[in-house]
Amino acid sequence: MSKENLLVKRIQTGVRMEKRIVKVSKALAEYLDITLGDLFEGIILHAFDGKTTFSQETLTKIKQLKEIYGLDFGAEYSHKLIEKENK
Question: What pTM was computed for the model?
Answer without folding.
Answer: 0.88
